[in-house]
Design goal:
Order of helices and strands: EHEEEEEEEEHEEHHHHHHEEEEEHEE
Helix content: 10-25%
Shape: globular
Radius of gyration: 23 Å
Distance between the termini: 62 Å
Structural class: alpha+beta
Number of helices: 9
Strand content: 25-35%
Number of strands: 18
Largest sheet: 9 strands, mixed
Amino acid sequence: MEEQTLAGRAFGEVYRVQGRADLHAFLIEAVKASGGRVLYASDPHRAPVYLGVQLDSDERIGMLVYPFRITRNTIKNRPADEIRGQLRYGSEESWKREHPVGRDFAGVDVSMILGIDLVDGVLLGLDANLWDPLPMGISFYAKDAEIEQAKASGWHVWEKVNRAGTKRSEPRSPTSLETVVAFTPDRLIDYARLERRATSLRLDPPLRYAAAVTLAEKSIVDDLPRRHVLEEQFALTSEQILDIIGGRNRLSVAVRGGVAEYHLEQLLEDAPGVATVERLDVDAMHDFNVTLTDGRHLRVECKNASPKTSASGAFKVEVQKTRASKGDPASRFYPADGFDVVAACLFSPTGRWEFRYGLTSRMTTHKDFPDRLAPIQTITDDWTSALADLSQ
């Protein structure tokens, strides 16, 4: 490990690299193609690469890029229709320790982890929140079809399953899904803006997916300096978003749950048939106690629906905890009587802050633990768009 600085600033570990000058040059050309001017570029024989970029609007962005080469080498037991990148800096012996991603704690610069496909001229953006620390020696993959879509449209977003492996006992994401963005060089600055906001707000994969899909339209990206797209999506100002994040302990895991809870609380307080709403912020408890005007008391758990629908087109929602307690695999799943209602927020699949309500008494139970809820629930016709419409 070398104690060095880039651009006169310390960003953590700096690696000596060889044979990557072409990746360095590609990044500089990508800045130009995306409408920027390179004010500063760090040494091509060092990684990560720091780029100081100025736009025509006089906006300036500092980019700390971890670039990795994408290849198409044939690999035993891997599909032939995929590309591969491998996270490789330093000696193999050093891969046994952690390699944290460099961060600008002031939030001025943005850190990005990019796979670069020089053959097709496409960049592959990995979620810097999920891939920190860098799991050196690990490979990442994408299908040829995904790269072709990125080449055709300039910006392609999809969800990819991630699983536990030899270097980690749990999936990288609590939902076992991660959002991947492939894009052409003319969208590099757009991706930097996405990553900067996603990192500062700690967007989890479903919200990152929704934000990235919205950014597919270049005209929307051009409006970002005036009002960021996330402020439009959330129907909140940036100050309100930060107030929500700062006032809820469990939002250290992700912003998504807190934003959904906020909208649900506002909705329930004005909903017909609802007498009182009490928001809880206690570990191992449901999210709301709600009293209806007919006298019923309901324990409500707020969850975000998946951005992907089932094969039948129905919405679905994940109802399980991030991880199980040691030695108790059943503890990851909610008791069937732990709360009365799941309020599923449909923002991820629809882009609208609306909810569907389902009774846990009618939900599918776990195949191995009959007193627990199954981790994935389909939002059926039994679910209602108004809490008071539920009939027990």
